[in-house]
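PROTEIN ENTRY
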Amino acid sequence: MSPNDSRDAITAQRVTHVLWRQRLVCLAVALVVLLGGSALVLTRPNVYQSSSSVALLPVSRNPGILPNYPNLITSLIPTYVQLVSSPVLLNKVAAKLPFRISDAQLANDVHAESLSNAAVIDIVAQSANPVQAKEIASRATAIFLGELRGNGVVIPRIYGQPTVSDTPVAPKTTLLLAVVVLLAVILGLCAGLAWDRLSGVADRTADRPRTTPRPAAQDTSPTPAEQTSSVRLVDEARDLNSTEQQRS
């Protein structure tokens, strides 16, 4: 392993050191997430549900239906489930309710569920008011029964009446708060690591030495005037040497 690789290796000790160095960033991010998430959880309205159970019995006066009823009801159940949340049925429900509610809101508050291997449909309604949830479920069930009566295939029977719920539906507040705490811790740690990484890159960029331009190479070749002067000195030295030889 090269020195650079060993320096950049991620170890538990190094991560702990980084998190301790950036503890203020971790705490700040975790605190913001914790306060914001807790406020959303504690201020959210409670939701109550009320449901009825409808059994779809075969028409006994039609002998041709009885042998094929299990297969027939299996194919019809999805259609009946969609009928409960259809705009046509919800418009009738909204018109029968003693309080004002929009069709779009009813589309979010009313749905149907089918039990596996049974010709039973549960009509479920929810609302922030438990009494209104029960009223919506009752009206939706009554209108659903009216739509199915006289079709010559099934006879709907109610065996579970809607009731007023005293307990809001899950998820519970304590569970949501635990999720918020866990999320705050994770985001705080990630923010500390990311901040240390970004600050380290900025510091390395600022400390990088600046490159200075290399000076241009100087021309050391002699100029014409210097060449002429050198020739003259050589000639004078030669003449002086010649004169001394003649004297001797």
